[in-house]
Design brief:
- It contains 13 helices and 13 strands.
- The protein is of the alpha+beta class.
- A hairpin with an 8-residue loop joins strand 8 and strand 9.
Length: 462
């Protein structure tokens, strides 16, 4: 169809009443008073912005946002307005002005809305659509993952963490398609299959068979690094058209018995180790944390299961400590070492890794204590001995740095004294030539030196 043909069709639709009800019962008739722009229309759950004027069939006006000077916003298709509006505004384009004639079944029903709207009233609305926004799927509601529905899904369930999903999608940067694929992956491990964070977060909110458009901000996509393989520049926002073809939900922990939880924890441990070896520490941490969530409060087990449970949760805390060290979250690493020591009070790995984390936090004195605890249990542990040597070197370097700092401070104090009292310059020159200094001046310098030393000690032990 040519542009001229399109314009002719659009013009012919003006002032032509069209039945827009699903079963064509004449309940909502639409007339386009002014055509809108583009081809897009709002979809369910989008927040639309409109002006409207409502009248009865005799011309009596009962409501007007225009007179109030306040545009009206609501979420389309969620039952927050009359049926006629949910149906009618879903057919409008941006900038369109339309007239809707609505029978009482699609308005306020047999009872009306006293005192302004009588029972069984047919209503007429003149509506102008200004804009609409997608559904914000980001956890922080920061507008970084916006959803625009294309086709509704079926059922009420959506994928959870651990669910295996089958998804088809097309990725666009501007008008350019940079990726098109059908993929199966496990929710929570999307990055291992090349799924960006925003896409994985969004799929947890989709229903089976649902098709949608997603606008994903760079912070949930490839960020400031971009993606050279796809020719995505730094800071680029992306658009995806997604179809969730099918998924199989993972069992929630409350749906499992003890045996299933232990079996799943063994699988999670193996997965976590695989991700750790691949240096994907975030995914390793996710899997190890699931073990803790499954087993932390599991009680009343038989002896064999209890032993297996304790072994798994101890390994999870130790591995979480190591993974958090690699991810530079040293505070978390120390927490997990402490948890491990609650289970096994003489665990050498827990002492050693806590020492490593404390070293990274420059808490060298406590780190030495941890490495010494390793040696108390394994006197020939070379790694612990080496770490103690390194810690002592770091402490020595720290004191030397502090000496330089305070030495510079003393020089500045002296220069300041000379400027304030020029006569002191001769006295200091005399001292440099071997003459005895003023006892009071020596006492003053001694006091400052003592304060400096005390300051260094305080900084070291804090």
């Amino acid at each position: 169809m040519t542009n001229m043909d399109s314009e002719t069709v659009a013009q012919s639709e003006l002032n032509e009443a069209i039945d827009i009800t699903p079963n064509k019962d004449g309940g909502v008739l639409k007339e386009i008073l002014r055509a809108g722009e583009g081809d897009s229309t709002p979809s369910p759950e989008n927040k639309v912005t409109v002006h409207y004027v409502g009248t009865l069939t005799d011309g009596t006006q009962f409501d007007s946002s225009r007179e109030r000077g306040d545009k009206f916003e609501f979420e389309l298709g969620t039952g927050k307005v009359i049926k006629a509006w949910d149906l009618g505004i879903a057919t409008m384009k941006c900038g369109e002005l339309a007239k809707f004639t609505c029978k009482h079944e699609y308005a306020y029903g047999e009872g009306g809305s006293p005192p302004k709207i009588p029972p069984n009233a047919t209503l007429i609305f003149e509506v102008e659509l200004f804009d609409w926004k997608g559904v914000d799927l980001s956890e922080d509601k920061d507008g970084g993952i916006m959803k625009y529905s294309i086709k509704a899904g079926t059922g009420g369930k959506t994928p959870n963490d651990g669910a295996v999903v089958n998804m088809k999608y097309v990725g666009r940067h501007g008008d350019r398609v940079f990726e098109e694929r059908t993929v199966q992956f496990t929710v929570g491990e999307g990055s291992d299959s090349g799924i960006i964070e925003g896409l994985e977060m969004a799929v947890k909110k989709l229903k089976e068979g649902e098709q949608t458009k997603l606008v994903i901000a760079s912070r949930y996509a490839y960020g400031q690094d971009g993606n050279k393989d796809f020719n995505i520049p730094p800071g680029a926002d992306l658009e995806y058209e997604v179809e969730l073809q099918s998924f199989e939900k993972a069992k929630e922990s409350w749906e499992m018995d003890s045996k299933e939880k232990i079996e799943q924890s063994e699988i999670l441990k193996a997965k976590g180790t695989k991700f750790f070896k691949a240096e994907n520490y975030n995914l390793a941490i996710k899997n190890y944390k699931k073990i803790v969530s499954f087993l932390e409060f599991e009680t009343g087990l038989e002896e064999a299961e209890q032993k297996q449970r304790d072994s798994l949760i101890l390994a999870a805390h130790l591995n979480l400590a190591m993974a958090n060290i690699k991810a530079s979250d040293f505070h978390k690493a120390i927490e997990h070492c402490d948890k491990a020591l609650e289970i096994d009070s003489n665990n050498i790995k827990a002492f050693f890794r806590r020492g490593q984390a404390r070293m990274q936090q420059r808490d060298f004195e406590d780190a030495i204590k941890d490495f010494q605890l390793v040696l108390d249990n394994e006197p020939e542990n070379k790694a612990a001995k080496n770490q103690i040597v390194i810690c002592r070197q770091k402490i020595k370097q720290f004191y030397e740095q502090q000496k330089k700092i305070y030495s510079g401070m003393f020089s500045k104090f002296a220069e300041h004294d000379i400027k304030v009292n020029p006569n002191k310059k001769l006295k200091m020159q005399g001292e440099q030539n071997g003459e005895a200094g003023d006892n009071k001046e020596n006492e003053k310098n001694s006091e400052v030196s003592s304060e400096a030393k005390e300051s260094v000690e305080t900084m070291e032990t804090s």
